[in-house]
Amino acid sequence: MTLAIELTGITKRFPGVVANDNVSLAVAPGEIHAVCGENGAGKSTLMKILFGMQSPDEGTMRIHGEEVRFSSPADAIERGIGMVHQHFMLAGQLTVLENVILGTEPVASLGRIDFKAAEAHLLEVGEAYGLDVDPHDLIETLEVGERQRVEIIKVLYRGAQILILDEPTAVLVPHEVDELFRNMRELKAAGETILFIDHKLEEVLQIADTITVLRQGRTVATVKPADVSTGDLAEMMVGSELPTPQTSRSTVTDKTALSIRGLTVLDEDDRPVLNDVSLEVHRGEVVGLAGVEGNGQTEFVGAIIGTEDVEAGSIRLLGEEIAHSTVRRRRNSGIGYVPQDRQEEGLLLFAPLWENAALGHQTRKPFANGRWFDRFGARERTEAIRSWFDVRTPDIEVTANSLSGGNQQKLIVGREMAAEPKVLIAAHPTRGIDIGAQAAVWDDIRAARADGMGTLLISADLEELIGLSDTIVVIHKGELTATLDPATITPRELGSYMTGSEQDDAETPDGPGPAAAPETATGPKSQGDPASGDAGEPQ
Amino acid sequence: MTDSTVTDESEEEPKVRLTRAAADSRLRQILLSAAAPLGAFVFSLIASAIVLIAAGSNPIEAAKDMLDHASKLEVQVSMINRATPLYISGVAAAIGFKMNLFNIGVEGQYRMAAIFAAFVGGAVALPSVLHIALILITAMVVGGLWGGLAGVLYTHRGVNEVIGTIMLNGVALGVIAWLVRRWQAEGNIVQVGVGTEPIDESGLLPNLNFIPELFGDLRANEELTGMLVIAIVVGVVYYLLLNRTVFGYDLRASGLNPLAARAGGVPPRKMALAAMLMSGAVGGLVGMAEIFDKTRYDPNFVGFLGFNGIAVALLGRNNPAGIAVGALLWAFLDATSDILQVTQTAPKEIIDIMRGVILLTVVIGYEVVRRVRERTESARTAARLAEATS
Ligand SMILES: Nc1ncnc2c1ncn2[C@@H]1O[C@H](COP(=O)(O)OP(=O)(O)OP(=O)(O)O)[C@@H](O)[C@H]1O
Ligand SMILES: [Mg+2]
User: What residues contact residue B99 under an 8 Å CB cut-off, 6+ apart?
Assistant: First the structure.
């Protein structure tokens, strides 16, 4: 049987690093093949080579037995290869159909776009692979999981038989992951070959037929999921045993770090996207904010850091009112911020790492000396972040876009943690980070928490949310609808709170607050309840 | 695991070398940056040679004429005189570019600044240093206000800065025409159609003739403009402000990624306004060499310095040294286009063709340089790693 994909001896060098060092990869047709490895192991690079976005310095590629050489993604598409990038590339203002046909519009007479034919083909493709979409939905109204489905359909619409998915589950909540995996199995049944990258090893074992592990740019193993455990995989990735995560004890104090009362934020049409939200984060406490994306989390975070106008309500940082202060004022008085999209809000992609390390902290030591920017101090701090957070890079003069996704994330988390914030607003802090580094980030957050840092944690990874939080609040349609105890809740249950299906019961499990700190639970809880009462029926 | 020990060693070694390599690669990087505009220039020479041959002229002769001409001291002085306002104009445009603001308004800003500065300078009698300072400050304030106006329209009314500055250019020309007429009526302009009241000797920036006189004699009336010093100061301040201050960091961050900058505490509106104010203030100095030279604003006041400044900033990639190279190149083409007219070896329009070709090729040039740089760095990495593992 000829292999669907056969890469031999692929080598790709970048200034200062060898991203792929004599890598080989064999993928049988019709299988789901996972690629695992630490941040910076060379996974994305390998996928980009396969998709024609980068050309290898050495090595050969065979697709269905035939040797190929791609000079652009167009060549790869021609060969039936499609790729869904980690950052979706959809136009929000267009419909699903328009997005799917963008660039390959079928032309009717007089050069008009033949929407009828396109729609028919789209529905056909959707049907064939069991992917359910409405061609006329606007992209911006879709949830993340649905957008991803559109990306996949878009690729299939172009006739791809080999599908590359770069970290498809990173942005999904559990039920969306299940949905994705169901789709992947159907695709496989329809004869597609799927190659995907994933940092969550349980998921890999659950869905993959074969797993290839990369380490420092080299293939270290190709295994079957039945033969390995997640521990084995991790060991292959890292080359040593994983450190056991710190056991955590509650450090919640009764001092308020961040107090939010009656917070209301309006959208462009003056409708409330955040309605009378009250929440308290204590020093030494991690409050998890659970919710399906698009329920007001972005606005909530924006209102706290100051990029969103506050219509009504108060925000107090250690007692000081900041609801209408400038972003800089708030950041300087101790708010750390890990944005949900690292490339959009977190990085200057074309600036060197040491300038990126200063972003958000540029008016303070060690980055500033009065009004002067302190290059020496900035470089020194960046080196510290690099070694402390294990940011893998040849040197700190390279631009941020040459870091691998996970290393970009580590740089941001490192920059915020190094500034020792009093309150950390962390949106998906470990998104795209490998398991080893993830444990390290958790440890860092716990250590800072023990020193009194208050944290508002947003995460699509419910295990993370439950594992790290002292209290969990649920946000639904711009209101806080429940306050839950992470010690007793399961990801499944939490998932149903998030979709609003268990909203009415929200007040019932009021038994123990966070077991470790009962006295503090009354804070967020007593404010959470009235909100949930309001939210119960009207929507 | 045996292979893990191998990788560990090979990982430690190169790291140390890489930092050293980073240092010596900086010089190479500077040389590579200069390669793009120079390469574009060479390419434009070839392209225009082809055009000249096709048109029946002799490109060698034309080049010889240009170079002969440029080797004369007074032509070199005139080149620097032309390059000086272009440089200032280039820096003014670059300040906007650094923040992704396309300030087309330097054209209007420098004209407004020039007429007001000339008017104020001609209206007062002061000790020399104060007089000169007053004139320069007036120019910067007027230029800054005119630029700031476009800034306010942009930040508070959402008027795109390109549209705003283009319209303000038109308004500036109108205002100037109106002012000239009004001052004439009031008798402030001595001779009809000649210009503003001349500035007294005390208000004129001294020339730098002592420098070219080290190399030979200057003709009477030939001067090296004192604005050269101001231009150098502008360049140095631009560099320091942009690269060494928190403000400059904020400015560049906003230009690179406005959303990230905002989340990092950079107020987008304030920065846009500041950039337009500064761009305008620097732009205000563009016309001052001419004012000091002619002692007044007259209807023949030099135009297009603002637009040419955009080209020069583009050539120099907004880099203070690069802009200087661009300004000198532009001035060289300017100064030598005259001689082609005299010798008739080539139509002087060939200079415009060269300029166009340079602008188009320099963009490609920078991209080629980027790739070459990456290629060589990668190859050197491979070599070092091979060395380290063997
Ligand atoms: N455009 C680039 N320029 C320079 N170096 C690069 C570039 N792209 C990737 N690299 C380097 O190549 C190595 C591999 O990067 P790659 O993105 O393939 O990692 P990855 O396995 O996908 O990691 P992650 O899990 O963090 O996404 C990294 O060390 C990275 O710094
Ligand atoms: Mg990656």
Answer: B251, B252, B254, B255, B271, B272, B275
Residue ranges lining ligand 1, Cβ < 6 Å: A 14-15, 17, 19, 37, 39-45, 392-393, 402-407, 432, 434
Using a CB-CB distance cutoff of 8 angstroms, which residues of chain A are in contact with residue B256?
348-351
Q: Report the side by side order of strands in the sheet with A58-63.
A: A17-27, A5-14, A58-63, A66-68
pLDDT of res. B162: 87
C-alpha angle B341-B344-B350 in degrees, rounded to nearest 5: 65
Q: B259 to chain A: which residues are within 8 Å by CB?
A: 344-345
What stretch of H or E contains B238? helix B227-244
Chain B's closest residue to A351, CA to CA, is: B256
* Complex ipTM more than 0.85, yes or no: no
- Crossing angle for the helix pair B73-98 and B305-315, nearest 10 degrees? 80
Q: What is the mean pLDDT of residues A1-27?
A: 89
pLDDT > 70? residue B259: yes
**Which residue minimizes the CA distance to atom 22 of ligand 1?**
A44
* pLDDT of A494: 86
Cα A5 to chain centroid distance, Å, stands at: 28
pLDDT of residue A110: 66
The predicted pLDDT at position B117 comes to 92
> For residues B365 and B356, what is the distance between their CA atoms, to the nearest angstrom?
14
Nearest CA in chain B to A238: B4
Residue B229 CA, distance from chain mean position: 15
The mean pLDDT value for B18-25 works out to 50
Residue spans per domain, chain A: 5-238, 245-334+421-539, 358-419
Instruction: State residue B20's pLDDT score.
Output: 47
Q: Is the pLDDT of residue A508 over 70?
A: no
In a mutational test of the A interface, the residue from B32, B257, B373 whose CB has the highest number of chain A CBs within 10 Å is B257
Place of tokens 């559990």: A174
Domains A5-238 and A245-334+421-539 share a fold: yes
Which of 3.40.140.10, 1.40.20.10, 3.30.2130.30, 3.40.50.300 would CATH assign to domain A5-238? Answer: 3.40.50.300
Which range is most confident: A189-198, B69-78, B133-142, B174-183? B133-142
Would you say B203 and B109 are in contact if contact means Cβ atoms under 8 Å apart?
A: no
Cα A147 from chain centroid (whole Å): 14
Whether cis (ω within 30° of 0) applies to the bond prior to A366 is yes
Q: Which residues of A touch B260 (CB under 8 A)?
A: 339, 344-348, 359
| Position A513 pLDDT exceeds 70 | no
Domains and CATH numbers, chain B: 83-213+223-367 (1.10.3470)
pLDDT score at B302: 84
B193 confidence band (pLDDT: 50, 70, 90):
low
Closest ligand by atom to A394 CA: 1
Dihedral sign for Cα atoms in the order A476, A478, A483, A485: positive
Higher pLDDT residue, B374 or A246? B374
Q: Which of B4, B266, B381 sits opposite A17 (nearest CB)?
A: B381
Structure confidence at residue B185 (pLDDT) = 66
User: Is domain A245-334+421-539 given the CATH code 3.40.50.300 in the classification?
Assistant: yes
| Residue with the two structure tokens 């003709």 | B219
At B168 the three-state DSSP class reads helix
